[in-house]
Amino acid sequence: MKLTRLIPLLLCTSLAATAANAKDSFSICWSIYVGWMPWAYGADAGIVDKWADKYGIDIDVVQINDYVESINQFTAGEFDGCTMTNMDALTIPAASGVDSTGLILGDYSNGNDGIVLKNGSTLADIEGQSVNLVELSVSHYLLARGLDSVGLSEADVEVVNTSDADMVAAYTTDDVTAVVTWNPLLSEINAMDNSTEVFNSAQIPGEIIDMLVVNTETLAENPNFGKALVGAWYEIMSTMQGDSAAAIEARTAMAVASGTDLAGYDAQLASTEMFYSPEQALELANSDTLVSTMSNVAEFSFDHGLLGMGAPDAGFIGIEMPAGTFGDAGNVQFRFDPSFMQMAADGAL
Amino acid sequence: MKRLINRTPGLRGRWLLGLLPFALLLVLYLLASDARLAANPNDKLLPSVEQMGNALHALALEPSKRNGDYLFWVDTLSSLKRLLIGVAIAALIGLVVGLLTGALPLLTAGISPLLTVISLVPPLALLPILFIVVGLGELSKVALIALGITPFIARDILQRTQEIPAQQLIKAQTLGANTSQILCRVLLPQILPRLIEAVRLSLGSGWLFLIAAEAIAATDGLGYRIFLVRRYLSMDIILPYVAWITLLAFVLDQLLARANRWLFPWHKAGAES
Description:
The structure holds 2 protein chains of 2 kinds. Chain A contains 15 helices and 14 strands. By secondary structure, chain A is an alpha/beta fold. About 4% of the residues of chain A have low confidence. Chain B is mostly helical. Chain B is 80% helix and 1% strand. Chain B is built from 11 helices and 1 strand. In chain B, helix 3 packs across helix 9 and helix 4 packs across helix 6. Chain B is globular. Chains A and B meet through helix 1, helix 4 and strand 7 of A and helix 1, helix 2, helix 5, strand 1 and helix 9 of B.
């Protein structure tokens, strides 16, 4: 193969990866987490297909084993949408210049993320200890917010980056005395001897939001993609709520798919503030609280260098929210778009 | 017209041909990177040379915001320290075990099968046990490297020892040497250069284990940094780090090769005769 012939080919493949255009088949990815299991159920039970057919499109729902890998795939353009938290949406796709939209606010962590100490009864006891956590993740953010609340800063502890896969094993060793992690690992660690949970996400309600993020350009060119996803989501929500036989069946399917049982899954749901109705999600999306949360998140991300080397300040990447825009309005890469959830609330889907 | 099989490049031709694939890869990379950046200037997958330079500059020449360290050098020093200590321990244990097991038939019968089985155990699979035994500190990283490559070095030295001609041992005994003298004066000088070669071969795995260990729990190191910024697709940091690790590995390899020539000149002479 001659070089001259290879160049156009390379150009085409690299452009194809970034080009978006009107189309009729889409794919979204999800990874295992209590608030995202509904996608697994919705795909298996045919709810997603039903709504996609209604709008004359195809939606492929793909599970990715590794959470960060799934976001990277979305950022690279392999998927049109993906499940992630508000912080990761800002620091991975948006910071990489992929304009992203929060289409569905599914829930916020209300105790699903926590700080556990081995020998200590209050958060202030963490001073001077080394803390094992997945650095730069929402755990790290939770730690920063927790330290803030007791007048400490990150300089008072030593952060040790530890892979989430090894967190539980690490906690069984003697030299690990403090961890920050999320469920289901959190409940496993809490169940061990002399563990005290000294801070959790219930103390910063509404700050760690789990959502479905889609590519802004794709959504603008294909509003049907957004409508089908939102329609399917709220049908799944109404199916899984309550104690009817259908709801139990749905939640059992989600439990099995996430490697636990109904009781375990319900326990995880208890520390998750699910927005079963679009009205609940809209209340958060339209609130001023969201603006202050996102400014907190942006400040944290900037302090830790997550907005990229070129970012001069926390407002480098604009975040557009119904109640106002944070940061540079000329460089908006992350948006909260409540209009589709509003359609669901109005019964217009 | 010379036959193709008989056409050999001159010195300059060899250099040119050797550098050509590197130049081609570089050009391909630059073209692909430009194409992606033209479509999205913030794209992180294929950063431009300038972006990588900036990222490296920030890590190597500016103190970090968090603790004022020059991260690039701190990472390099901690990683090299772990690697060298781990490899040194592995080389020492491998030499002693390999030499004694290879030289003494009683030990060969006893230890050789065990060594073979141990060398087949994948060290990475034992990580959780390793954590619980030695904790998560520096020791666990050094231990993983040592555990990973000791069996390989020991088996290699064992085989090399057995390859030494029996005539030499008989000659030495005829001249009145006892077992320990044979070990130190006949076997050891011939085994040491081979130990360095075994270490050179095992450095590749050594790096692999080092980076695996740093990915699991660490506060600094080359592997740690790569896994940390992997979350953010910061290829502008990852690619220079990978290039740097490759360069370090190459330099280490060459240093060992030269050390072999300086320290044991008889090894090469013996191989040629």
